[in-house]
Write a structure and sequence with these properties.
The chain is of the alpha/beta class and about 350 residues long. The chain folds into two domains: about 5-120, 3-Layer(aba) Sandwich (Rossmann fold); about 140-335, 3-Layer(aba) Sandwich (Rossmann fold). The chain has twelve helices and 13 strands. The protein has helices spanning about 20-30, 55-60, 80-90, 105-115, 155-165, 180-185, 200-205, 230-240, 265-275, 300-310, 320, 325-335, and strands at about 5-10, 35-40, 65, 95, 120, 140-145, 170-175, 215, 245-250, 255, 260, 285-290, 315. A six-stranded parallel sheet has the order 7-8-6-9-12-13, with helices on both faces. A five-stranded parallel sheet has the order 2-1-3-4-5, sandwiched between helices. Helix 1 (about 20-30) links the parallel strand 1 (about 5-10) and strand 2. Helix 1 (about 20-30) packs parallel to helix 6, helix 3 (about 80-90) packs parallel to helix 4 and helix 7 (about 200-205) packs across helix 8 (about 230-240). The longest helix is centred in the C-terminal third of the chain and has 15 residues, at about 300-310. The chain is globular. The N and C termini lie far apart (about 50 Å). This is DUF1611 domain-containing protein.
Length: about 350
Amino acid sequence: MNIPAPYLLYLGHTTDPVGIKTSRGLAEFRRHDCVGEFRHDDCPLTLGLPRMSIAEGAAAGARTLVLGVANAGGTMDLPMIADAKAALEAGLNVASGLHHRLNAVPELVAIANARGLALFDVRDPPANLPVGTGRPRAGRRILTVGTDCSVGKMYASLALVDGLRASGQTADFRATGQTGILIAGGGVPLDAVIADFISGAIEYLAPARDDGGWDVIEGQGSLFHPSFAGVSTGLLHGAQPEALVLCHDPARKGIRGLPERPMPGLAECLAANLQVARLTSPNVRAAGICLNTSSFSEAEAQRLCGEAGHLLGLPCTDPYRFGVEAIIDNLLCHERSKPAPIASR
């Protein structure tokens, strides 16, 4: 998806820090493509980018306003539509990962057509996705899974790709959500795929490969989130992962959007994910744990990682703070421990 850069990142009226995760992801992983952030006075959040009006963003060279926000249901309210309209009138393309499509708003379509601009709906899945089969396929695949949604699965996936490449491995990031797709420039928006095709969409996204390289597949949702467990299940089956990396936010007490429902235990969650994954990947194993410790001091983060690692007997890290070297070592240790082939005589 060739969305013209540079970007002006939209925060709008959002007050929930998790609600701007798409804009934050672009600011973190494609900062060189971001000229600034647009937010209204009632938005207390910032990405550390220059605050700009839409006109100032256009003058600074932005070519696309990215509506990098997320809310329950993925809707666009009237103020957001008004901001998208203002961006088009200022000469900017508009991109969105919300379920409410830009191209379903006639007023925006009319302005874009009249000005020769584009509306990019990142959550439009590819046409003619196959039904999954679960048949074994070649390749080495890692899937990030989580105790909840929005606990850092995308950050962990990108860090794992970088870590594998630093170790001399070939590795590719396979995006399954709006933020990942915007960062990678392609992928499958899994939560917009009809349920029957979820596992097939992942087989399509990460097909068989024979080059010894790794596909790091971005996880979505959680088996323990009543709203999104179906997407997580399809991902586990379609990915046929060799290994899982469990992601968790230790500051979170209740499931996102359902605070009355407590978070699952790490051991319970990992066991459930391994069991579901075994349907299509009987030998799947756990490779490590990634914690989002952004709410804690560095000393407390180290303690939390140590406790979780000891509990599950796995390397545990905050990929953003401490890197993923220990998890990469664990991933590759099986390969390194294989006996060398006997030379023929």
